[in-house]
Design a protein that fits this description.
There is one protein chain. The chain has three helices and 52 strands. It is mainly β and 662 residues long. It has four domains: 257 residues, Jelly Rolls; 91 residues, Immunoglobulins (Immunoglobulin-like, Sandwich); 186 residues, Jelly Rolls (Sandwich); 107 residues, Sandwich (Immunoglobulin-like). The strands form eleven sheets. It has a nine-stranded antiparallel β-sheet, with no helix packed on it. A hairpin with a 5-residue loop joins strand 39 and strand 40. Helix 1 packs across helix 2. The radius of gyration is 41 Å and the shape is elongated.
């Protein structure tokens, strides 16, 4: 709606003879509009002393001189009138002061075309200043030559551009020079596109205009020699100052709408598609686009935040496609960002929504932190074994083939999250078992444990490690032994990827993803299972997730320490992690201690190795939790606080000279 209202306003401007072009009235000096010519019909010739009236209100009317006969036509751009010049003494002139002198700034617009019968090297479309002098900088002439290039000439210098008019095609041309500016500061646009400088003569030269009037379709090339233009002119607008970018655009829009040009049209912005970020990724790159007409002053961009739970950080809010960081991200956060694009006086806006999904879009994870198994996540079936959670799931054998206890996840998941991440199952398979199966099945596919053939994707271990698909033994590797980390990632459509880590990094055993040969993964609800035969088996760090969730941090809160009451002891913890999905945050807390005893963390509770003081004699148990955004394992350290034991105190402060012990 904004775009059409703007065009309507411009049409209103066109329809009013008194309104300034584009509403820009300040500095309007000469305005020759062929549409304002009255009393003439198509093909009529301007006789000697006939005039083309100035619509600016200043009375600077152009009078036909030179013995030629410019022609009034009604087949100009957009079927509007124009004045046609034959190139042989066809010109108009105003021989009086117009208020441009010295090194004044100016802005000039012309709607014109060059005929095929042009003089290839000399074409003078408009001229102002000293009417018949070649003194340095005494005049300005618009040269629309097809070979040397279009531009301005100043008797002792020039600023010439590549974008010539061509033949028999109307164009909107615009020239602009700042007040006191040198020749080299002149800017030029053709149909809203900035011109590229072809050549410069004396670019540091400056004007010294004699205020003697102007000439249309001709100009001095020697002391008294005129060169003429061959072509048509529909409108000329001259300001006695440098217009701002917004004003230049406004006049350009007026001309473009009036003459049905695509130039200077309302820009239309698309802020880009809505985005879904999967934590820990909290940086979005915008993908905006601008369509619509071009403009004479380029585009400016301004990104702002409309809504969101925190302040979004743009690396550069003034470019089309910035990177945006969302600090302190939380699953479910929704941000609305707006892009405003400006072309002078024209603007358009659009918004994009960014939604943050949970860390890796994790559906389920359980790294067995020593608490009771959550029955909402796990269930024990098929057999009489038991599940005990004590930093691992221990599945007890109850004898009799495969009919042993197994654990299956209650939360179920689709094969992918719709954002390019497929479902991944991961488990630490601890040493000690003679026979295990772990893996994925989908709803309705797992009827029982009789021969384990109902599993869809599995790791099978019996001393040799196998990739197994729908009960079929496939690739294998022997000699792995010990502790193993096992992973199965579903293909986008079918098949899976089997990877294992025996302590030296991940190795691919089988990859059948999206080959068209494996079970179909889409449209199913997936769950995971852990099963063991004969021997007890330990499992740890069981994860069902979308995308890479990284390794769980390893936490060692340190060795038993000794402290003296009121003296600080420095804890010595060790935490290692891979940095995924986020950097580690530390949290220290007091689990227990003597009655009335309080441990005070001098450096705060969020550093790895804080200094701690104690106020009551006794044993304190302090807990360190290391959180990487998904996993939050912990470890505890015991500190013995003593009130009077000087030997312990000496050990704490590291003093070897017993004479220093107080």
């Amino acid at each position: 709606m904004k775009r059409y209202l703007l065009i309507l306003l411009c049409l209103v401007c066109v329809g009013s003879a008194q309104a300034a072009p584009g509403g820009v009235a300040a500095g309007l000096t000469v305005w020759l509009d062929a549409s304002s010519i009255t009393g003439m019909s198509h093909g009529d010739l301007f006789g000697p002393a006939s005039s083309w009236d100035d619509s600016s209100g200043n009375g600077y009317d152009a009078v036909a001189v030179g013995g030629g006969a410019p022609e009034y036509r009604t087949d100009g751009p957009n079927s509007l009138p124009c004045v046609s010049f034959g190139g042989s003494a066809d010109l108009f002139e105003y021989s009086g002061a117009i208020g441009l002198s010295g090194n004044d700034g100016y802005t000039l617009f012309m709607v014109m075309k060059q005929d095929g019968n042009y003089d290839n090297s000399v074409e003078r479309a408009f001229y102002f200043g000293d009417m018949d002098s070649t003194a340095a900088g005494a005049s300005v002439v618009v040269d629309s030559s097809q070979t040397t290039g279009i531009g301005l000439r100043f008797n002792n210098g020039n600023q010439i551009f590549n974008e010539i008019l061509g033949e028999d095609t109307y164009h909107i041309t615009a020239f602009r020079k700042p007040d006191l500016g040198a020749y080299g500061t002149v800017e030029y646009w053709r149909d809203g596109i900035a011109g590229e400088i072809k050549g410069q003569g004396n670019p540091t030269g400056t004007l010294n205009l004699s205020d003697e009037g102007y000439v249309v379709a001709g100009g001095v090339t020697g002391a008294t020699t005129y060169a003429y233009m061959t072509g048509d002119i529909a409108e000329i607008i001259l300001y006695d100052r440098e217009l701002t970018s917004a004003e230049t655009t406004a006049v350009g829009v007026y001309l473009a709408v009036k003459y049905d040009f695509s130039a200077y049209q309302q820009p239309v912005v698309d802020a880009g598609p809505d985005q879904l970020l999967y934590l820990p990724d909290n940086i979005a790159t915008m993908d905006a686009a601008e369509t619509g007409g071009v403009n004479p002053v380029g585009l400016t961009y301004a990104w702002t935040q409309i809504s969101g739970p925190d302040t979004a950080l743009f690396d550069d809010a003034a470019i089309e496609d910035p990177n945006v960081t969302f600090p302190s991200p939380t699953a479910g956060d929704t941000y609305v960002l707006q892009l405003e694009i400006t072309s002078g006086a024209l603007t358009d806006t659009d918004t994009v929504t960014v939604i943050l999904a949970g860390p890796g879009s994790v559906t389920f994870e359980d790294y067995f932190d020593g608490t009771t198994i959550d029955p909402a996540k796990w269930v024990v079936t098929e057999g009489t074994g038991s599940v005990v959670q004590d930093e691992a799931v221990i599945i007890d054998s109850n004898g009799g083939g495969n009919d042993n206890a197994y654990v299956t996840s209650i939360p179920a998941a689709a094969s992918n999250d719709g954002g390019g991440n497929n479902l991944t199952f991961m488990v630490d398979h601890l040493s000690g078992s003679a026979y295990t199966n772990v893996g994925l099945y989908y709803d309705g596919s797992f009827g029982g444990m009789a021969d384990a053939n109902d599993v869809v994707y599995a790791w099978h271990y019996n001393g040799t490690l196998y990739a197994r698909e729908e009960g079929v033994f496939l690739e294998s590797v022997g000699g792995t032994g010990g502790d193993l980390r096992l992973s199965i990632t579903l293909g986008r459509i079918d098949g899976a990827l089997w990877e294992y880590d025996a302590g030296s990094g991940w190795t691919t055993l089988r990859d059948s993803r999206d080959l068209g040969t494996g079970p179909v993964n889409t449209g199913k609800t997936w769950q995971m299972y852990l099963m063991a035969k004969v021997s007890d088996q330990d499992f740890d760090n069981v994860i069902l997730s979308y995308g890479d969730v990284g390794e769980m941090p390893m936490v060692d809160a340190g060795s038993t320490a000794i402290a003296h009451i009121s003296d600080a002891v420095s804890l010595n913890a060790t935490v290692t992690d891979d940095g995924t999905p986020a950097a580690i945050t530390y949290t220290w807390s007091q689990l227990d201690g003597p009655i009335g005893g309080t441990a005070t963390f001098v450096d705060g509770t969020s550093v790895e190795d804080p200094n701690v003081t104690f106020d009551v004699d006794g044993l304190y148990r302090l807990k360190l939790t290391a959180d990487d955004g998904l996993f939050a394992p912990s470890d505890a350290v015991i500190v013995k606080a003593r009130d009077s034991d000087l030997i312990y105190n000496a050990q704490v402060i590291g003093v070897s000279d017993m004479n220093q012990v107080q």
